[in-house]
Amino acid sequence: MSALLKLARVHKLITPTSIRTVSDAVKYPKITTHYTVCPRDKDERWKEVDMERYVDEVDIVIVGGGPAGMSAAIRAKQLAAEQEKEIRVCVVEKSAEVGGHILSGAVMDPVSLNELFPDWKEMGAPLNTPVSTDKFSFLTETGRFSIPIFKGWPMDNHGNYVVRLGHLVKWLGEQAEALGVEIYPGCAASEVLFHEDGSVKGVATNDVGIAKDGSPKDTFARGMELHAKTTIFAEGCRGHLSKQLMQQFKLNEGSQPQTYGIGLKEIWEIQPEKHQPGLVEHTIGWPLDKFTYGGSFLYHLNEPTPTIAVGFVVGLDYQNPWISPFQEFQRFKTHPKVRGVFEGATRIAYGARAINEGGIQSLPSKLTFPGGCLIGCSAGFLNVPKIKGSHYAMKSGMLAAESAFESIMGESQETAGFTPKSYPERIKNSFIWSDLNKIRNVRPSFHNPLGLYGGLVLSGFSIFMGGREPWTLKHAGPDNESLKPASQCKQIVYPKPDGKISFDLLSSVALTGTNHEGDQPAHLTLKNDRVPVDHNLALYDGPEQRFCPAGVYEYVPNEEGGNMKLQINAQNCIHCKTCDIKDPKQNINWVVPEGGGGPAYNGM
Asked: Distance (Å, rounded) from C-alpha 392 to C-alpha 395?
């Protein structure tokens, strides 16, 4: 070791990992070229590039055009019309079309829609399938046992609707535009902008025309800046800008770590004689072991063709690094009491998305920050036993709009950005807060020595008590810290897909319609290119190969270095955010790809 290196270590000026030798470059090939990790101001190739952005100013910018974002936009314009005020509202949505990135089962409680548009039925909202039958079952390897659903309990779906949420969001977008909301699909917000006093000023959309090696193409174009009095973030679960704001403003201080699940879903056309529009089925148990939280859903839609939505959710706090949520989903469909519905049927779509499972304990302690707020799944509003969050998303968006409008139209402000100050109190006075408080102990109750069996008893008691028990259970910790070393766990050998009921990963990804420009930096960025091989592969046998539901990550031979290396197939990414959540070292950071990119679920 050189004297200089020894001296530097003594004085803590550098660490061994910061020294990148020629041999390191061979053993650890450069993976990340994205400008969020490799700054352009230090890159000679960018010195002569014009980096000026076009600027537009509005009253309210909403980041994300899902149920929460569209409801916020609609409510803001409704208030302006009622009070005869002029207000400019803009929604930026990374999908090429409104609703294109929406993935959900979904059974929807119409309570928020009733409030937003009391005459939604006459207006033609696409809620066509009222729930007719509810079933809840426990699966063993070969058997199925019914679990009773009592009226008024979270699993009771009386009065709800089976919907294609993407279709509803598209309809909401049409209503928003009719009210004068400006919607920019295909424009991904990539950066939060700040005033000099630190309050949020708005967002910038992403640049386009950047080559895979991080250099500017001839087609390079700078994104635009949208400045607003109030910026509302409705990015969905694990939004990358929301994550930044949580860290910058310490919004989670005092809250428990958010815990997540990954939901995988397929759409099938089944034989007409097996179709029962309005039938809703949920299962727990097989194929998961008793210490892995999760279960299935199967919904029959009232469509021109006999269509069902089937899915599987796996809690991302699982411990065994050999688990593949995608493979568990495929295995579930082969159960002897389940497979019959798929025989003679055709699979027509596939997708996956992370969902919040932390409940009230994991909500940000502060929902607002100077210049804006978090709504919907960006904040973590989801009812785990109900497996529902759309009505909370819509309601939170409406409450945020009311508070933002109130601030913009009258309240004196302490910062340049207008803070929707009354929003947290409005949330606490709404059904969102009371609902989440009632079921706060359901999800953490499954962390016990008996696993699933203890969880059923404890959560059943909590539901019976209606949340009146005088204690609040804690979650086990961050999901990325839950994995055990691969050497301590039983390796899982999954059955080969039959191509009829169960399928391989790549043929499934082909059904997502995912599309990314090939010649662009990977939007799955690594803080340190060495971590995948030195930590994830060495200790957990590369769990990202298995927890990713789209085949984005794979370890391949590094012929030059004589070892294995991580290969990122970013073009496969379906924006589920699982890697951003489950990566053991939190070394993976999801950022928006060029032009938004991603899946084209189109109302799946």
From this structure: 5
